[in-house]
């Protein structure tokens, strides 16, 4: 990876995909601390018209994007009433447009889910500095996505705290990574139910699942953290980001979330990145790499830390996590199926159509039952068709289970 070089005469222009979400708002917070370095070119949102309108009034981007014509028109009316001339675009193609626009230097990819794949690919193919907070681009896209990064000459910078930690522990020259790494260790807090008996999770509510002990996150990723599916997706993401075998990616429970991840080197020395659990740190690093800038996060006070503890990621307590290695060992495209099933499972749980303890069961059954055609994994269209087929299969299972009292076997 080589850093993109911006002219010293102008600020770095950035498009933020998913600007009203947790990562998007944290990105804007970091940008607000460095107005001399960054300029917001485009902002996008999924449904929060009022929040995006307020962001546009503050940041005055050239472009803004909403997913539908109706929402785009609502945004236009609000901006017009405020006398703002930001151009409002709509639909998936508009996301690809702002991700690949020739005047854009950097793209913060903070859209949640497989919907972020195409705009991430557009940014990669256009050779952008791509700040990747959308792990599904790698979970779904895998080799195709990494090929686009290489062919487009993009600079790929991980924003997930764990992958940013690994990246910060490695030399800048990617070709040296394989010679240095024995394996990596991703840390996980264990979520809000780490100490709870797995047999008592049937009555967990969405509000309880979204109450993460250490991090402030959106609802989907909070549920993923509670089931440890977030860590499962991160295992898959790390395999592609750092060109590792699945066996080289390991996970340990670290309840304090102070050590964000570790690299175990070939000489058995261990490099770790530590810090307060604040997403502004990896965001600031991605924005400024290979330099470092002020993030707004608190400095870690070592004297106030009572202890740093570690536990094994037990398969009985965290069965969702172990689906990652199962999917990586299965037919190509299985990680796409796993991600699609999980998105349906989490949405169904948040809509109170699925119990918390059924999320893993749905993911496991979809992964086990859906056959994959080899032709589906050779193109983006094929992968997205597989994604939709897996979603339809998962929705069918949810419909079947809705009238059932007993927990389906996992």
From TrEMBL:
Swiss-Prot/TrEMBL cofactor(s): Mg(2+); Mn(2+)
EC number, UniProt record: 1.1.1.267
Every 1-deoxy-D-xylulose 5-phosphate reductoisomerase N-terminal domain range: 14-142
Segments forming domain 1-deoxy-D-xylulose 5-phosphate reductoisomerase C-terminal: 156-242
Known pathway: Isoprenoid biosynthesis; isopentenyl diphosphate biosynthesis via DXP pathway; isopentenyl diphosphate from 1-deoxy-D-xylulose 5-phosphate: step 1/6
Enzyme class, broadest EC rank: oxidoreductase
Limits of the DXP reductoisomerase C-terminal domain: 274-392
Binding site for NADPH: 20-23, 134, 136, 218
Residues binding Mn(2+), per UniProt: 160, 162, 234
Superkingdom, natural source: Bacteria
Known catalytic reactions: 2-C-methyl-D-erythritol 4-phosphate + NADP(+) = 1-deoxy-D-xylulose 5-phosphate + NADPH + H(+)
GO biological process per UniProt: isopentenyl diphosphate biosynthetic process, methylerythritol 4-phosphate pathway involved in terpenoid biosynthetic process
List of residues binding 1-deoxy-D-xylulose 5-phosphate: 135, 161-162, 189, 212, 225, 230-231, 234
GO MF annotation list: 1-deoxy-D-xylulose-5-phosphate reductoisomerase activity; isomerase activity; manganese ion binding; NADPH binding
UniProt keyword terms in alphabetical order: Isomerase, Isoprene biosynthesis, Magnesium, Manganese, Metal-binding, NADP, Oxidoreductase
Keyword NADP: yes
Coiled-coil annotated spans: none
Function: Catalyzes the NADPH-dependent rearrangement and reduction of 1-deoxy-D-xylulose-5-phosphate (DXP) to 2-C-methyl-D-erythritol 4-phosphate (MEP).
Matching PANTHER family: 1-DEOXY-D-XYLULOSE 5-PHOSPHATE REDUCTOISOMERASE (PTHR30525), 1-DEOXY-D-XYLULOSE 5-PHOSPHATE REDUCTOISOMERASE, CHLOROPLASTIC (PTHR30525:SF0)
UniProt similarity note: Belongs to the DXR family.
Name assigned to this protein: 1-deoxy-D-xylulose 5-phosphate reductoisomerase
Provenance organism: Sphaerotilus hippei
Organism lineage: Bacteria, Pseudomonadati, Pseudomonadota, Betaproteobacteria, Burkholderiales
């Amino acid at each position: 990876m080589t850093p993109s070089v911006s002219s010293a005469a102008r600020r770095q222009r950035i498009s933020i995909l998913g600007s009203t979400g947790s990562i998007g708002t944290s990105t804007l917070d970091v940008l607000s601390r460095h107005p001399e370095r960054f300029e917001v070119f485009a902002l996008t949102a999924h449904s929060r018209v009022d929040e995006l309108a307020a962001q546009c009034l503050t940041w005055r981007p050239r472009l803004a994007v909403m997913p539908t014509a109706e929402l785009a028109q609502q945004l236009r009316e609000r901006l017009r009433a405020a006398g703002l001339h930001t151009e409002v675009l709509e639909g998936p193609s508009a996301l690809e447009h702002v991700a690949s626009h020739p005047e854009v230097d950097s793209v913060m990819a903070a859209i949640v889910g497989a919907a972020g794949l195409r705009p991430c690919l557009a940014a990669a193919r256009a050779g952008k500095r791509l700040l990747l907070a959308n792990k599904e681009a790698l979970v779904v896209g895998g080799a195709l996505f990494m090929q686009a990064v290489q062919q487009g000459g993009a600079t790929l910078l991980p924003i997930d705290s764990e992958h940013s930690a690994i990246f910060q522990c490695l030399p800048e020259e990617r070709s040296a990574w394989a010679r240095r790494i024995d394996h990596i260790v991703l840390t996980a807090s264990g979520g809000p139910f780490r100490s709870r008996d797995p047999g008592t999770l049937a009555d967990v509510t969405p509000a309880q699942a979204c109450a993460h002990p250490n991090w402030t996150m959106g609802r989907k990723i909070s549920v993923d953290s509670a089931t440890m599916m977030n860590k499962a997706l991160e295992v898959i993401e790390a395999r592609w980001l750092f060109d590792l075998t699945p066996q080289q990616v390991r996970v340990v429970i670290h309840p304090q979330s102070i050590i964000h991840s570790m690299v175990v080197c070939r000489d058995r020395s261990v490099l770790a990145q530590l810090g307060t659990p604040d997403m502004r740190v990896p965001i600031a690093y991605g924005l400024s790499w290979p330099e470092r800038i002020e993030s707004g996060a608190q400095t870690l006070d070592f004297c106030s830390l009572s202890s740093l503890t570690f536990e094994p990621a037990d398969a009985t307590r965290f069965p969702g996590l172990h689906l990652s290695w199962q999917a990586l060992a299965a037919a190509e495209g299985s990680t796409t199926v796993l991600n699609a099933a999980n998105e349906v499972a989490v949405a169904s749980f948040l809509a109170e159509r699925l119990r918390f303890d059924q999320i893993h069961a749905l993911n496991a059954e979809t992964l086990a039952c859906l056959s994959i055609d080899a032709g589906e994994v050779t193109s983006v269209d094929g992968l997205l068709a597989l994604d939709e087929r897996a979603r339809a299969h998962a929705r069918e299972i949810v419909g079947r289970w809705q009238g059932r009292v007993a927990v389906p076997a996992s």
